[in-house]
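Treating backbone geometry as a discrete language has practical consequences that deserve illustration. The sequence in question and its structure tokens are set out directly beneath this paragraph.
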Amino acid sequence: MADTGDARRKLPGVDKILERPEFDTFRGKVSNTRLSQIIRQEIEKARKSIEKGGEVQSVDSIAGRVFASVEDLLDASPKRVINCTGIILHTGLGRAPLSRGAIDSLLVSCGYCDLEVDMQTGLRGNRQEKLQSLLAWLTGSEGALVVNNNAAALYLVLHELASGKEVIVSRGQLIEIGGSFRLPEIMSRSGAKLVEVGTTNRTRADDFRSAIGRKSAMLLRAYPSNYRIEGFSESVSVAELAKIARSHNLICVDDLGGGLLWDWAKLGLPEEPNVTQSLEEGADLVLVSGDKVLGGPQAGIILGRKELITKLRRSPLARILRPGKLEIAALASTLKSFLHPSRPSIEIPTWRMLTEPVAITAARAEKLKQKLGSHPRWTELSVIESSAQAGSGTMPVTPLPSVAVSALPKSFSASRWAKQLRNTDIPVIGIIKDEVVLFNMRTVADEEVELLGEQILNSIK
């Protein structure tokens, strides 16, 4: 006789799945209440599948999905990866890797620390006082304020100094930053009114002068870090913008974004706008990121005139956007590396990668190839010339010379192997080019080469 019963009745109960031995690994990590909640969700999905004409799912199938869901919950923290993309400030991989000093400072600050206590008086202190002193020494700025990222810095400046008023900016600088956040949208949310001047490729000083009116409060330069307009183009320098602002009692703000404190041309790197230059040219406020070319943690750094910084610091928004103790500890340690011009390239990984002679990169590539050569089954295994990028809007049109290991094991396609590499114990992120995987060695540290080789070999076992 045919079974005409409701197929949903064949689904297992919560207890039947909960008592399975594979879930013993979660005992003491996840409560039975939480496990039961996830099991019910998966059973409900199976029930809805049946209602749509699907087949009854086995207990093993449902239990497998529950197990995977719980593992995902326990794996919520970011994982360490080995960056073989050649993109130094890779947003998807966390941008700037921290220096050893910054990591040590994080460990010290994880417990109780003197974040807001003056040890001389025993009274409550200012959590940013030491940061402000460091930034003043390094840039010549009268004042400094740190918030949790550069977009927050821009929002705070616009909201406190130009809400309900006009902010004049070149049409060619209405940029879009990561995550599809656009400058005009940030300005609108801040309460400031955007006034566009010039054209996409040409903006002159007179365009700014002509746009100034009774409601004008600020002239803004938003540095187009992710692209360059070349050829028939013209823009207004910070020095010109500051002069116009002073003559009309307006505020000149330079949103640099990148985080370069001073000129690095003597290190052989191309010219990039920097904080010291902008302040010397007359900008009232300069905004930069902490986790880009500065090489520190995520932060937004506001530098400039003392009275403006004081006004920003007193805003309730500054309290909302303030950095935590871990960000402050890592940023302070990073900044100390800039007290001598020779230290950043030695102590800060980002600067080491930006300035390293290509011969050193090549030596790492040869070392990796030698380790991989112990495996006999390669379709391709060679060391090739390549190029790297600074990333995150730094030097967007200037590639860095680099060296890569080009590899592909037998019986693998490049895409299949790249997926295998992403699922090793320590994921390896390379790039696919011409149906092979490239491991760009400019973004690999000396101490990672042995581990990288092990992970690559593990991926093809």
Remarks:
- The chain has 18 helices and 15 strands.
- The domain at 82-90+353-458 is CATH 3.90.1150.180 (Aspartate Aminotransferase, domain 1).
